[in-house]
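Q: What residues go here?
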């Protein structure tokens, strides 16, 4: 999240009506760190931290956003796993921006369903957000494609579960 917050300093210069809404930071220490970062960089008018939301509200928040982001840092976990929110964002039908952690970057590139930025690089984040804003129709087309992949394509659980079962079958033989 720190990358997105610091990126807002750059974005706000170009788009002063932009608002980054962070939903549900994990714990008190993380929230305090993020709030201090916002205050230190005088971004109180550009970044809002919301409390954790009930799951039923999250999809509505995603659908009402112009852009949904996953600004993961690169570490062992993010380089080897996909977050559930990736697929939730695809189902929202709204544009997706992710950091270049390997699993997310691979799927975004292969399927043409979103955009990625260099993890932990606020300038890269800001540049991608500005580019998405400039070419918003293209971002919406990618979002539509992502939605279709998540509903009916190879990113749908009905499809991926079959591949997973086949893998387990091969391993057990």
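A:
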């Amino acid at each position: 999240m720190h990358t997105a917050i610091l990126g807002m300093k750059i974005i706000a210069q170009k788009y002063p009506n932009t608002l980054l809404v962070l939903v549900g930071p994990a714990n008190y220490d993380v929230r305090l760190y993020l709030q201090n970062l916002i205050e230190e960089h005088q971004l109180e008018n550009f970044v809002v931290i919301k409390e954790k939301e009930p799951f039923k509200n999250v999809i509505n928040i995603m659908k009402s956003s112009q852009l949904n982001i996953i600004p993961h840092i690169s570490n062992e976990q993010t380089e080897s796993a996909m977050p559930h929110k990736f697929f939730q964002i695809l189902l929202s039908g709204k544009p997706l921006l992710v950091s270049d952690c390997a699993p997310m970057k691979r799927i975004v590139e292969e399927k043409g369903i979103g955009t990625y930025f260099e993890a932990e690089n606020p300038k890269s984040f800001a540049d991608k957000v500005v580019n998405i804003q400039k070419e918003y129709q293209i971002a919406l087309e990618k979002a539509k494609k992502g939605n279709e992949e998540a509903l009916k394509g190879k990113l749908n659980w009905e499809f991926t579960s079959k591949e997973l079962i086949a893998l387990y079958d091969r391993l057990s033989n």
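A: Context that may help when evaluating the design: The two ends are 43 Å apart (CA to CA). Residues 150 and 156 are 5 Å apart (CA to CA).
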